[in-house]
From TrEMBL:
Stored Gene3D superfamilies: Ribonuclease H-like superfamily/Ribonuclease H
Origin organism lineage: Bacteria, Bacillati, Actinomycetota, Actinomycetes, Frankiales
Annotated ranges, domain Integrase catalytic: 76-157
Keywords: DNA recombination, DNA-binding, Transposition
Keyword Transcription set for record: no
Protein name: IS6 family transposase
Organism (species): Pseudofrankia asymbiotica
Any matching Pfam family: DDE_Tnp_IS240
Biological processes annotated in GO: DNA integration; DNA recombination; transposition
GO molecular function: DNA binding
Highest taxon in the source lineage: Bacteria
Residues spanning the membrane: none
Role summary: Involved in the transposition of the insertion sequence.
Amino acid sequence: MSRCRPRPLVPVSEFTGFRFPPEVIVLGVRWYLRFALSYRDVEELLVERGIAVDHVSVYRWVQRFTPLLVDAARPCRHSPGDRWFTDETYVKVAGRWMYLYRAIDQFGQVIDVLASERRDLAAARRFFTRALAHGRRPVEVTTDRAAAYPRVLDEQLPAAHHVDGRYANNQVEADHGGLKARLRPMRGLKRLRSAQVIGSGHALVQNIRRGHYELATHAEPRHRLAAAFTELALAL
């Protein structure tokens, strides 16, 4: 069994009032976050299993339950490493290009994700404030050469070594590829909140699959994600 139990968030189940049982809802959310599927694709897969559900319901499940699953998993998450790689990638929201700030550590753990309309000092500051709330402070931070980073790092991590050399950030730039592949079938998002939810949910899935949570530690690697989501559902 796992050495960590996800923390229950509320005394009453978050699934109360939903037509479908928790295992169906969590299955739909897991499929959507894990694979390059549209909401209609998830609808079709569930119908093949004899579960008649509309794609709009799948959308609502993802938007409601993804942040809850992320929060429930937080106590079981490994502390980040001490070397961080930070970068922004682009995502189209309501026909406009916006930004997803992401950071990973030297072990490939996604530390945090922040969706932002702008790529500026305020956004960089918000991102690092969020990322540092996860615990361990880095001794080295690698970024691109955006002008905002030196100022933010001087404010929040004055003791950390800042690296911004050419090609130094290849690790996180390569890591964007998995998220980009997930976003591709969507052909753009309607709301910035959706970018935040899906970016955070994809990070949760990626981190569980890479073993950065004390969840489903008894399961074989290929079954770890499904077992972890089952454990997390019990906390909702």
